[in-house]
Amino acid sequence: METMLKIFTGSANPALAAGIARQLKTALGQIQISRFPDGEIAVKIMDNIRGKDVFIIQPTCYPPNENVMELLIVIDAMRRASAARITAVMPFFGYARQDRKDQPRVPITAKLVANLLVAAGTSRLLAMDFHAQQIQGFFDIPVDHLEASPVIVKYLREKKYASPVVVSPDPGGMKMAYRYSRLLNSGLAIVAKQRTSPVKVESYNLVGDLKGKTCILVDDLVTTGGTLGAAAKLLRSAGASRIVAAVTHAVFTPEAYENLKRSAIQEVVVTDSVPLRMVSGAPSVRVLSVAKLFAEAIRRIHNNQSVSSLFNI
Questions:
Q1: Tell me: the pLDDT tens digits for 91-119?
Q2: What percent of the chain has pLDDT over 90?
Q3: Is residue 164 a contact partner of residue 244, using CB atoms and an 8 Å limit?
């Protein structure tokens, strides 16, 4: 009897999807994604998915508008093809920066995307390292939220840094930094920052003793590298001997490579939750795969087993 589990991928990160399928010892489902002459997205599911448990892997990274719309259309096609359950697997959940009204007359895009996913026919969401934990509450469907820490911490432990201190580059990342410090049995520090524009950050204060320490800057997301660069400058002035950045989602712009190259950061560790957009002359970046982590989560969801035990390291 043919298995009830079917894995599909959109256009955003097929390499990660292929890695997940290999870990599950299955083939990716056949899907045809094309464009009409005016740019509209056309989708056709080539496999029979009637009554199947389907997973569509699609981070909403660059270009975010295209990838979000493609994901919604694929989900709609699956719903109309009578899939028994549709799980949206979003290694990176885009539009998450605007998760509250912090100014007058601004949207809450994280809630908007949540509404769109549910309206399209999503039965369940599997994601990793939301920009804000409260985004889970925007959904009225089950949400399985993974952390990249099992993958990143394993690598950091193998490096055996001398006198490590985990540093949060801003107050919003303090909970993530605290979890990493507990897992690494290290010290903890925080950089207080003030954002002057969407692309410019001014770091202005530091809490913690970093003299002669190896500082590990942890964050969920980096785009321009402005926050990490400014934080690293402050850490260097405080006497840090080595500065490492460990980030889950490397949504790099070309500007990010320039900022990281000019910064005091000596090593950048990221995951393959989104495809790395390399540019000429870019500094070396260590990419860790989360394919095994997602494959195990998908297997457990399909078999109605616990996912929370994946957080054990």
A1: 999 999 999 998 899 999 999 999 999 99
A2: 75
A3: no
Cα dist. 32→28, 44, 214 in Å? 12, 5, 48
Task: Output 289-292 pairs: Cβ under 8 A, ≥24 positions apart.
Answer: 289/16, 289/19, 289/151, 290/16, 290/91, 290/128, 290/146, 290/148, 290/151, 291/16, 291/19, 291/20, 291/22, 291/23, 292/19, 292/23
Catalytic, 101? Answer no
Percent composition of the chain: helix, strand, coil (DSSP 3-state, to 5): 35, 25, 40
> Dihedral sign, CA of 210, 213, 287, 134?
negative
Residue range(s) of every CATH 3.40.50.2020 domain in the chain? 5-147+291-311, 149-288
pLDDT digits (tens, 9 = 90+) for 250-308: 999 888 888 888 899 999 999 999 998 776 555 678 999 999 999 999 999 999 999 98
At 201 the pLDDT is 55
CATH fold for domain 5-147+291-311: Rossmann fold (3.40.50)
Catalytic residue among 44, 52, 160, 193: 193
| 149-288 maps to CATH 3.40.50.2020 | yes
- Residue 1: which pLDDT band, with cuts at 50, 70 and 90? very low
Whole-model pTM: value is 0.92
Please give the Cα distance from 58 to 36 (Å, whole number).
21
Q: Which residues pair with 9 in a beta bridge?
A: 57
